[in-house]
Sequence to fold (581 residues):
Amino acid sequence: MSTATGRTAGLVDRLYATFDSPRRQMLLMVAIVVVMAVLPLVMGRYATTIMTNALLYVVLALGLNIVVGYAGLLDLGYAAFFAVGAYSIGILTVQFDWNFWLAIPPALVAACLAGVIIGGPTLRLRSDYLAIVTLGFGEIVRFSARNLEITGRASGLSNIPEPSFFGYVINSYVDFYYVFLLLAVMAVIASHRLYHSRLGRAWLYVRHDEDAAEAMGINRVRVKLAAYVTGSVFGAIGGIFFSVNLGAISPESFSFEQSVLILMAVILGGMGKIPGVILGAFIIILGPELLRELGELRLLLFAVVMLLIMLLRPSGIWPERRH
Amino acid sequence: MLLNLEQVTLRFAGNTVLDKVNFGVEANTLASLIGPNGAGKTSLFNSITGFYRPQEGRIEFDGERVLRRKPHKVTQLGIARTFQNVRLFREMSVMENVMAGMHCRTRAGAFGAVLRTPGQRAEERYIAEVAHDCMRFVGVDEYADRLATNLAYGYQRLVEIARALATQPRLILLDEPAAGLNATEKAALIELIRRIRDERGIAVLLIEHDMGLVMQVSERINVLDYGRIIADGNAEEIKNNPRVIEAYLGQEDEEMVL
Fold:
């Protein structure tokens, strides 16, 4: 059994290795984007909507990957940032009649603030305490949304207006599919560029050895804070377009399960590796859908498959590998 | 004096690790700090670089207060260090390791990275240039793309020095750079330490147990024993100083008893 798994693992690794060169990865990405761009023409409404959701999760998982994968900070309340983006748009457009595009900058500012608020006081904590505090933060945001007048309490906000882009109203499910495809592509490019930058390297240095990083003149608190803020901006962008896509948001969209689901996408696919995280996001969303025919059993089966993946490939399906 | 310590006292849970230490390193010199095991040498390094916070005394670098500054601030002031037990970023390439040193001399953030602004790209080129220069200087340029952990121990020590050089310091603290090196590597290290000063104008302070190496490279030697500076002078003076001989002989006595 162990040699058999060893052999398949070796085969899989060799398959990944062929995509390890940047040029091939680029080609693969372009091919995937082209296929994805054609998909809505052949898919029905239901499948397109599911794919839209998967693309949203690609954005969210890539954002959380910056915090968890790059900087190595556990975050169990990532849905809070997602909520901040969604509610900022909801409040500004519904309660104050703002134009959608004008509401985006304040929503991003709010997300940055949320990143600083959660990051600032918690950065001196070790990872297990950090997990508890971030979990608490996620719940605080959800409870606030459920109890505040301005967020529409438990029923949330509805009739969030559809945005128009130079006179073209973005409202059909196909429109939103393309919006999220564009966001996912942008998130991939941004993640890639961050990873190969001064800040991206600093995240890795701090994750590997905080003392050595500090001795090199790296301000560890600032670098970690930058990870939270960058991650929260990704989450907020997801939330912003999530809210206009559905036209309505409620506190239950931003539950603890949501945070766990996003975290699962990151860990399952392979922390710190962009293709792995994308794969993880698709598995998390498409997995339960593909197993739908099994009815009640599908979640159980899904859980078993995930456990098997964690057992056989503990560092994720497509982990970060360096030589 | 480039680096100046006055009456520095460091205590841990009632134990006095450093006891009113007066100590200095002049610009552009090769200095050593020696002493028996447990004398407080590494504690002194950690106090200078901001990792420990001595309760009393003054530490100044080029007229700037160093004491109670955070480690990254001290590095920014121009003091770089290596660690006794090599602390490279093991799972990263040699190049990436050395690039770490440039962090405190550059400034691009998330915006620059995502938008790949001309300023950010120029800065990345500059970082790479300095990193290659430092790797060439210590002789590890050909291993730039190798993972640090896959390098032989002697080379890892060199990478650590390259990384410290990349912070563009005026003083570099080497904590037992010769530990674990063979005779050939030691000879090369002596050459390298001299070149750091001669070609780069960087003052070097080293902690070292290898007396041969210390006597060969040091222009000035300070001896630390039980947290106190017991001697200060050139190699000749230190060799003949009765207190130093006693400190070392005392240690050997203990070893013989054991």
